[in-house]
Amino acid sequence: MTAGRIAITGMGVFCGAAQSVPAFRDAILHGVSGVGPVDLFDVAAFPSQIAVQVKEYDPGAWFTRRQATRLSRTDQFALLAAKEALAMSGLSGCYDPYDIGVCVGGGAAGMFQAEQWLAAELRGETARPAQLRGVLPDKTCTELAQTFCLAGYQGSITTACSSSATAIGWGADLIRTGRQKAMLCGGADSLALLTFAGFNSLKVMDPEPCAPFSLGRQGITLGEGAAFVVLEEEQAARARGAEIFGFLLGYALLGEAHHMTAPEPSGESAARVMTAALAAAGLASDRVGWVNAHGTGTPANDVVESNAMQQVFGDRVQQVPLISTKPITGHCLGAAGSIESVATLLALNAKTIPRTLHFRGKDPECDLDYCHDASKPSDSSVALSNSFAFGGNITCLALAAADLQQGGA
Amino acid sequence: MDTFSGTIAITGASAVTVAGTGLDPVLSALKEGRSCLQPVPEEVLAGGHGLLWGRATQFKAADFMPPLKARKLDRCSQFAVATTGQALREAGIDKGAIPAERIGIALGCGFGGIANSAEFLTGYFRQGVAGLSPLLFPNTVANAPASNASIEFGLKGPNITFVQRFCSAESAILSACRFIEEGRADVMLAGGVDELTPLMMKGFAALGQVHSYASGFGEGCGILVLEREEHAVAHGVAIKARIGRIATLGLLLPDAEQAGIDRLLPAQRSFDQVSLSGAGAGIDLLAGKIAAQTVLRTGQIVGQSLAMGGVALGAFSYLLQPGQSGLHLAASPEGPYFAFSLHGDTPA
Question: What's the CATH number for B9-234?
Fold first, then answer.
């Protein structure tokens, strides 16, 4: 076991809202939404026709023609975000490759390509087999490990919308217990007809840009992209001269054991996972400045998450803003947790609580501070990031700014 | 490289496979060296003469749950719910006997959700929006089997699903051991679940894999009940075997292959029994580095898949005699690689 904190020494983002960490920082701090029309596939038949798509994406600008053919859209996003994170970390050559692992949270993975294969099959046309290669999320992990020569642990977590948050927590466990010296952790996902049609069929997609915690909200706006962080034990990172961008102080995961799609209504489970994350981090709840919500904008989620906040923070709840960055990024499903972790770290380091965009009116069932009007300054160095998923797979990360002093937790 | 070192007790296990429901049919077939695989029907794969597969055709969801509930679950979830119930009974754990927050589930899931995804999309491609079935969509996610099992049995502890090629179940079992080690749970159900459909065979054929990785593919579920040794002793359950060490690597680097193997395999490389799971050259490479009196290849008996390591480990833990040492090796083509050290029920 190692007693040191888990330091974040690299971050990378490639998503519909921004295609690099500096651009993403601007989007998060200034509240710039990437929501727009979808042209990746035909959405004319659906009530909601918007998403935060990676627009005008040209694989040829990033990959050779052979690579672009071989790699799914999701895998390409993952490689781009991971490359930025690893470059930022300066990790190359610092550890034995067997001491560096990779853990990816996945979702629809290469379904965007695979569903084109299925459509061709059903039409009786000759389908391109290569479109099936990335259908499982573990392909992303394999590509990252092989491309960047990460020969240690290799794992892909597939718990829907909490996948990549759990991947980061799990990666930290592998370091904290001394089993790996560094981990590349995060998630990647792309828009696909499956998820677009699926959430529309459940009637949980808002025709307008999602409006978490607002009156009249109708559901989610989907997004796509990838985000990765590089994790190391703090002293090892400092010893090699790495810059530290923040800390993962602890995490918790659990199953609600309630329903495949509906959250446990009292908020008890959501409160339990936040409380458990605080306990794992050794934090009292009064150290938390704000919470990056799962905040999808569905009528049910936002009430449950607000109720859970009351249970965790009690009388102090009005001093702990619950904000959602999904109006900026869209709900990136398998990548949501990692994208929101990076958003949280960037905001913590900027001493700013991001604004929750697209306010439509005050919902009496959501009566906390959601920063609907504007972002806010904050002197807190600690925030929670929630990720809740189909199946009741819920995860909470306790994150800290780079300036958090040792023992400050 | 990742190494787990603790002592986790296996106190129960069960399976659904082509051999039947429960672990006994698998154990019988293994002892007899009798493959349960069947020829792939011509209507599934034209020209697929000689190819075998292992569909769990004897499994009837109605034996384990009300028909209305079965209709709501995808096939992998049906497998997982049935197997979880049997494994808990094997371990003598009644529903509610352990605080719900202290018992969790970790499953590897290979192609779970793919069948529902294909059916959901087929409805759309054929009939447009009118063909979309909202009932199918929730079970298109790979975590549906673990989640449905958690809902059925009230498992409110850690809940996680992995897919990692042919080592998906082993990935889940590693995480379950760690959750127990870290005190996140007292009991974890852990293993793997996978399904096999005609459409998948068509996909394997399109990728040219039916004579390689997808040869002898199977479906089903294998779940272990894991707990700390003292916890098992406290509730008076018989320990089937103990997991003493788990090591894993993502890649074996060509210029440092021996160094990788040395990290992966324990220093002592002679065992009473060895279990081999997975596909690709890596499993034979690793098997060549160890000595054993008995070698089990459960995948050859009931079919291999991305997550059938749960069946293999379950059977292996029941076949280890008191005091025997065992090693379960799993590998995927080009990685990852796993090595589990097991001991028969005499304390290690």
Answer: 3.40.47.10
